Amino acid sequence: MATNGGSEPANDDISKTNLHQGDGYDRKCTFCKIVNKEVATELLYVDEEVTCFRDIKPGAPHHYLVVPTKHVGDCKSLNKQHVPLVEKMVETGKKILQKNNVLDLSDVRFGFHWPPFCSVSHLHLHVLAPASQMGLMSSLFYRLNSYWFVTVSPF
Ligand SMILES: [Zn+2]
Ligand SMILES: [Zn+2]
C-alpha cells in the first residue's frame, strides 16, 4: 500500500488546499499518472494548467475529461481561487469538442461529479457530446443538475 507521505493535506480543510502548494503531484492518483505520462493515454491537450484526455469508459460518442495538470482535489476542495481554473477547464472542453467537429454546443453536457460519486479524487470535468446520444446509464450518471453531477454551462 502506498504510504500517506505525499504533499496532499490529509484532511478536507479547504484553507489548506492551495494550487501553489506542494509539488502538485499525488503518487496514488490515476490522473496524476496520466498527466505525467506514466500510463499510456493519449493526451489531447496539455498546458501547465489543464490537461485533456478521453474517458476510458465513454458515456457518449465524445467523452473527454479535462483535469488540472497539477493535482487538485475533488469539488469539495474547490474555493474561489479555483474559479479561473474551472473556467479554463470549461474553455478547454469547448476547444476539444470543436477540434473533434462537435460544433453544436447546445447538445453537450459539461459537469463535475460530486463526492462520493467520483471514482478519482483528482478534480475532473466531464465533457460529453452529443448529450442526446448518451445511453440510459450514462444519462443517469451524467444527469443534468442532479446532486451527484454538478453541471456547468459551456456558453
Ligand atoms: Zn491527481
Ligand atoms: Zn467523474
Any overview of this molecule?
This protein is α+β, with helices and mostly antiparallel strands and 155 residues long. It has a single domain (43-151), classed as HIT-like (HIT family, subunit A), CATH 3.30.428. It has helices spanning 30-35, 83-99, 136-141, and strands at residues 43-46, 50-54, 62-68, 109-113, 125-129, 149-151. The chain has a six-stranded antiparallel β-sheet. Strand 2 (50-54) and strand 3 form a beta hairpin. The longest helix is centred in the middle third of the chain and has 17 residues, at 83-99. Mean pLDDT is 84; it is low at 1-21. It binds zinc ion (2 copies). One zinc ion binds at residues 26, 29, 31-32, 71, 122.
Any descriptors?
HIT family, subunit A, 6 strands, 19% helix, binds zinc ion
Percent in helix: 10-25%
Intertermini distance:
43 Å
What name does the CATH topology carry? Answer: HIT family, subunit A
Q: Name the CATH superfamily classification.
A: HIT-like
Overall number of domains: 1
CATH architecture tag: 2-Layer Sandwich
Oligomeric status of the shown chains? single chain
The mean pLDDT is 84
- Total helical elements: 3
Instruction: Give the cofactors and ligands.
Output: zinc ion
CATH class: Alpha Beta
| Residue share in β-strands | 15-25%
Lateral arrangement of strands in the main beta sheet:
1-2-3-5-4-6
Number of distinct beta strands? 6
C-alpha geometry: globular
| Unreliable residue stretches | 1-21
Query: How would you spell out the order of helices and strands?
Result: HEEEHEEHE
Motif (Histidine triad motif): 122-126
GO molecular function: hydrolase activity; nucleotide binding
Keywords: Hydrolase, Nucleotide-binding
Active site: 124 (tele-amp-histidine intermediate)
